[in-house]
Design a protein that fits this description.
6-stranded parallel beta sheet; 2-enoyl-CoA Hydratase, Chain A, domain 1; 49% helix; 15 helices; OB fold (Dihydrolipoamide Acetyltransferase, E2P)
Length: 421
Amino acid sequence: MILGGLMALATAWTVHAAPCTAEVEVHNVIGPATVDFVKRVQRFADAEKCSSILLTINTPGGVLESTRTINELILNSPIPFLCLVAPSGGHAGSAGAIILQACHVNGAVHGTNLGAATPVGMGTDLPKDLRQKIVNDTRSWLESLTHLRGRSDSFGKDIILEAKAVSAEDALKLNAIDWVGSSADDFLKFADGREVKLAGDKRGQVHTGVRKPFELDLRYKVLSITTDPEYAYMILLGSLGLLYFEMTHPGMVAPGVTGAVGLVIALVAMNKLEVEWGGLILIFLGVGMLIAELFLPTFGIVGFGGIVALFLGSIFLFDPVKTGYQLPYMLIVPTVALFAILFLVLTVLVYRTRHVRKKGGFEDLLGMSAKVVRLEGGNNRRGFVELRGETWKFESPADLEVQDLVKVTGYSGLVLKVSRE
């Protein structure tokens, strides 16, 4: 019993002796790239044995579907999310304000604001009934979040129904956030030790520690550009348009290549395809394009598209935190470069063969010597010659005799044109 108690005490001390907080910045439009990043930071926190996750938020908003997915990740997380609107001058607009309400502990630094979460269409006017339906659904959803976290229900209604936005200080007075201060370190000190509700109605304490940043890598940066809602919409329609143009104008090549790569990126951007599966498809597409380049007279267009697809696919393929594998750029770049060089060399060799004269045709007989072996029906200008052990019919512009030596000057069908040597 005593030994068991000592072991349990030692284990507890080991867990809490040096706790850490995984830190990530959400500073762009909320979209599928953000969802992918939040999933990865959760796995990063688990791998590093961190006891909390700090999200610093500075966003104008984003896609409602992605916001719901991120909130589901936060609400079902076994470790608490600590969300802070920062830096000073930043804001948590629209989707950012909704995510803020889902977090176990939230706050903002001085000089920031939050709110204005009324759903809007992507550059379009929604029908009145549809708009009302979306607004009411979002309002009730946000009310459930504020009720769960014990925050202001009225603030949740106001930012949806009236697009209300307030300063950090006013948000604290309205009980929309838990803390206002000057720095992220002060916020972590405030959050440390607080009791919060975790997944499954479990209660737990927040433990903060050494901040371990999860850096914004190239994968996220590429995804964040392509998954902006407006860009994703334009990429999808543009890709479909290019593919249609290629089908109606076969042989243009460039529209088909661009459309194929763009379509895969658009499916990832619109949350219809997992990032890793998108990467795998891009790799297969890239290799297929490189092979096709060897057989198609596309002057490098298909090959270039294949290299781009291969590079993007390699970036998207592995999540090192999830799989334990990582493709470093020091491996991706040389590998793609090797494929590019190999493709270039093979393409040059293939194009050179197009200028090599074909063997085994009548052209090989031109200029060769032959011997007349028989005349045809007493006509000294027609008959048969022996050439390389074969007998060929001939025609000559001048009279010939058997045993005369002649030179092949041309052909017509299967009849050789000859002249006396």
